[in-house]
Amino acid sequence: NAGVTQTPKFRILKIGQSMTLQCTQDMNHNYMYWYRQDPGMGLKLIYYSVGAGITDKGEVPNGYNVSRSTTEDFPLRLELAAPSQTSVYFCASTQKEGATEAFFGQGTRLTVV
Amino acid sequence: GENVEQHPSTLSVQEGDSAVIKCTYSDSASNYFPWYKQELGKGPQLIIDIRSNVGEKKDQRIAVTLNKTAKHFSLHITETQPEDSAVYFCAASRTNAGKSTFGDGTTLTVKP
């Protein structure tokens, strides 16, 4: 199994550009999450989804959008990129709601200049 | 909502020494406490977890203890090795919560 796969691994964006970070999992997990990790900091939840067609905001949703049209895919959209969105982004999935292991992707390192 | 505090933020030990990382949580309903290890350039990976009906759990050189009354849990690594150098995150969640709350991480450096 590939687990959780994120693309791209690295990306440089100019201020005002937009992009989509892709995330797909092959474990048939219902629950998926997007986190950002700033240098030397912990993981901040951006958005999460408890199943196809259902999404909800996390701690830091401003400037981002998500969709969940299938169980496997949970893309994160950045509109009008800003330097404050420079970070490493992690996608994760869990089998059950809460109280269970999270499986993380390898991360996407995004720089906005 | 849940709040998780993790200490220390950095920890440096000599190879062979023990390392202890502590976390406190605020939501008494939390019942699952995982620890993740993040190596450079990679995503976090689960190394050990504990549920609220257990006070201690061991896996070779790694152990986790939970004190529900005080609402804190700790990661213990014995006989540390250079390959233990990484960032460690604690987290807390509860059944039907939909999401976990993570601590800010501890950067562990094991000096050979």
Summary of the model, kept short:
The complex is a heterodimer of chains A (113) and B (112). Chain A has 113 residues and is mainly β.
Structural description of this entry:
The complex is a heterodimer of chains A (113) and B (112). With 113 residues, chain A is mainly beta. Chain A is built from no helices and eleven strands. In chain A, the strands form two sheets. In chain A, strands 2, 4, 5, 6, 9, 10 and 11 form a seven-stranded mixed sheet that branches. A four-stranded antiparallel sheet of chain A has the order 1-3-8-7, with no helix packed on it. In chain A, a hairpin with a 5-residue loop joins β4 (31-37) and β5 (43-51). With 112 residues, chain B is an all-beta fold. Chain B contains no helices and eleven strands. In chain B, strands 2, 4, 5, 9, 10 and 11 form a six-stranded mixed sheet that branches. The radius of gyration of chain B is 13 Å and the shape is globular. The relative contact order of chain B is 0.34. The model of chain B has no long low-confidence stretch (mean pLDDT 94). Classes of the chains: A mainly beta (113), B mainly beta (112). The A-B interface holds A 4, 31, 33, 35, 40-43, 45, 48, 50, 56, 58, 90, 92, 97-102, 104-107 and B 6, 31-32, 34, 36, 41-46, 49, 51, 89, 91, 93-100, 102-105, 107.
